[in-house]
Amino acid sequence: MIVFQILFASCLLIFILWKWKVSYWQRRDIPCIEAKFPFGSIADIVLMRKTIGEVYDEIYYQLGDAPFGGIYRFWWPALFVKDPELIKTVFVKEFPSFHDNDYYVNPDVDPILGLNPFNSKVFSDKEMAAHSMTFFLDGFETTAILLGFILYELSLNALPQEKLRQELLKVGTSLDEFEFDKIHEAEYLDRVVMETLRMHPSGTSFARSCTQDITLRSADGREVFVEKGTPVILPMYSVHNDSKYFPNPDVFDPERFTEENKATRPQFSFFPFGGGPRTCPAQQQQQIQQQHQFSTNNNNNIINDGSNSSSTTNKNKQKLKTTKTNNSSSSSNYITITNNKNNFNIINNNNSSSTTINNKKQLQQPKTKTNKTPKTNATKTNNHK
């Protein structure tokens, strides 16, 4: 009996302590998502019922018009930032307060990924290997994934595909003609890459750790005091697909990235590479590689999505006759992309070669809009307790 009483008292004490910990944001009058024992706000992630991107996307819309809100990862509080100006503050303006990523890899367990390539000026062999691994993951794997999604989107959107193709044909028809400067003059190619990054970013969010106490102030004057050690979540995928910044976000429209259209929205409504001093180190290399590989391999390709492929191919062949260049040796490939539940296949109809690409769209589900309001105790957002 005594053992049972001790066990019951211990469980009750743990629950009371947990309830106190998950009232952190309520005690500061910050809008927040109610925590559920014992997982906090991320039960669906822990139980593998939804991806991180799906859960964060639901939180994004549950917080309504609030520029920020609180969530709980088990019993640890984390700040969820929605406002692009606050995202800019975290990345750039107050970088000294958020210079650490919110993850840790023990160098003794993984000496390659555990070494932070931003910390040293003199590098050992292990640190050089860590740099190389970081560069490879940031620049090559993401490039391969993105090239697949560019093909996927162009196969579904004939007009952007033809416009891009015409631009590339003006640049050249052979590999030798695609010089560095010429590729960078291909403005529509850059827009296609940026729009694909908006719809299919390589990740769903960024997370920074607060390294010193700071007060963040949103554009509408609301404030939140962030204590040292608090994780700050920046939901990239949700911001990229918010109709407030990108009308009809499910539509592939490279014209969103003309200089005129970019000027109509906040700078950090689009941040596929992060921002500030810790911008993705392989950003330039990745963009150059994407543009060069796509332009040199696809200016003579016509892509369709596999639906009624024979008629589509015939239409494309007819269209090609009106756009042929003076290079009589130039030939065109007809590429068919077919989509199934988990993969999409890229088939070259001229030589019957085939490539299968994992359909990452299954991992980045469309945003789930909901009118459900988060449970919160107050409306004030300026209490610095």
TrEMBL record:
Record-listed heme binding positions: C280
Names of required cofactors: heme
InterPro entries (UniProt xref): Cyt_P450, Cyt_P450_CS, Cyt_P450_E_grp-IV, Cyt_P450_sf, Insect_CytP450_Detox
Described purpose of this protein according to its UniProt entry: May be involved in the metabolism of insect hormones and in the breakdown of synthetic insecticides.
Protein name: Cytochrome P450
Places the protein is found: Endoplasmic reticulum membrane; Microsome membrane
Presence of the UniProt keyword DNA-binding in the record: no
GO cellular component: endoplasmic reticulum membrane
Pfam families linked: p450
GO molecular function: heme binding; iron ion binding; monooxygenase activity; oxidoreductase activity, acting on paired donors, with incorporation or reduction of molecular oxygen
Record's bilayer topology term: Peripheral membrane protein
Organism field: Nesidiocoris tenuis
Keyword Iron: yes
Family: Belongs to the cytochrome P450 family.
Low complexity: bias regions: 287-315, 323-334
